[in-house]
Amino acid sequence: MGLIHAALASASNVLSEQWKDYFYCDALPNDVLAVRGRKRTGNSSNSQDNIISNGSVIAVADGQCMLIVEQGKVVDLCAEPGEFVYDASTEPSFFDGGKFVDGLKDLFLTIGKRFEFGGAVPKDQRIYYLNTKEIIGNKYGTPSPVPFRVVDEKINLDVDISVRCFGEYSYKIVNPLLFYTNVCANFVNTYTRDELDSQMKSELLTALQPAFAAISDKGIRYSALPAHTVELADELKRVLTANWKDFRGIELQKIGVSSIKASEEDEERIKQLQLNATLKDPTMAGAHMAGAAAQAMQDAAKNPGGAAVGFMNYGMAQQAAGSTVADLFAAGAAAQAAKPAAPAAGWTCPTCNTVNNGNFCTHCGTRKPDAPRRVRCNKCGWESKAGEPVPNFCPNCGDPIDANDLV
User: pLDDT tier at 168 (50, 70, 90 boundaries)?
Assistant: First the structure.
């Protein structure tokens, strides 16, 4: 029940019979995930669609994975492009082409039918082709807002908002055995993606919430998500692995975010919180009030009841504020003055650790240590290391060391 490359079978005359049936699959469009193989009959007397004649040829194109199913169980698999001869007297060949996840062959032995050498022809045999190309153009959108956590450590902001998100994603069948067994087993002729899209879209939107939480923990703002779709796809893969990859044999490939938007109320709330955090600085608060006062003076001059009435109202408002612009600027200056002064430049006394600027310590009178001297030979370019004793002659060429050699 295995497969042999058609060229090899023809050259070595492995089979005693001529090719009888020819199974193939036309190009699979993007909306088709699996189809049943079509049979083109040659010299065979086999008129049954559910029996594969010994010596039949099975063609596999690039981007396809062919499964042979007997009595409802997968017995062989081929994902390598080419033509293969079906030989009922050999063991399963399992040409996976190195395209699928590790352990696929072990899974085949677990869920597939174990080969019985020399057994009778089964009563039901079928050939299915699965689409292993990247399935693109799957649109998604949140029907209702989903939570997103906004974190800004610079201003100690940590608030939950609601966002709407729209875009497209792509996926790929990476384990055809799981996909056939758990998703589309025993379908009639064609299995299209619209039979699965609704469920996958629902699961993707459910996984967005924990994925958004992981993204926000990295300090990425929701408005910057379109530039971080790789991180978002990685997080969604992690969340969806159990339902998609481990159960259905499907893996999320890429996700695109075309639009993500918070409600107007949340947008305004974030702006207000950021402004409030900025105004904790008295100087910034003073500048903000000065700007507001300038605008208020312009509005007072335009007062319909006259400028005098407007300025009177402005003065009352300023008095009610309880703090003038000058007071805020003074508070900011005082806060700046209260900051610890930067360490004074100079040298530290090795005896008492007092910082000094002169040649002698003002506390204990210790002389300022001489800076480590180095020399460079003017003749050969040899250099000494800092702190080494200065030699009288260059150890490399013997030239006398003098003041001109000091670095």
Answer: very high
Closest CA to 175 of 80, 85, 90, 77: 77
**CA nearest to 178, candidates 119, 107, 127:** 107
Domain map (residue ranges) of the chain: 2-131, 135-266, 279-338
Give CA–CA dist 148/150, Å, rounded.
6
d(CA 377, CA 121): 95
Homologous superfamily in CATH for domain 135-266? Band 7 domain (3.30.479.30)
User: How far is Cα 188 from Cα 219, in angstroms, rounded to an integer?
Assistant: 50
pTM: 0.62
Cβ atoms of 77 and 84 within 8 Å: the answer is: no
Please tell me the least confidently modeled range out of 53-62, 78-87, 124-133, 296-305.
Answer: 296-305
The predicted-structure confidence for 318-330, as pLDDT tens digits, reads as follows 554 445 656 655 6
Amino acid letter for position 1: M
| Residue 238, both tokens | 């992690």
As beta bridge partners, residue 135 has 171
Would you state the torsion angle of the CA atoms of residues 359, 361, 365, 366, taken in this order, to the nearest 10 degrees?
-80
Q: What are the strands, taking DSSP E only, across 42-124?
A: 57-60, 64-70, 73-78, 82-87
Is the pLDDT score of 349 beyond 80? Answer: yes
Among 73, 62, 193, which Cα is nearest to 126's? 73
Q: What is the rounded average pLDDT for all residues in the chain?
A: 77
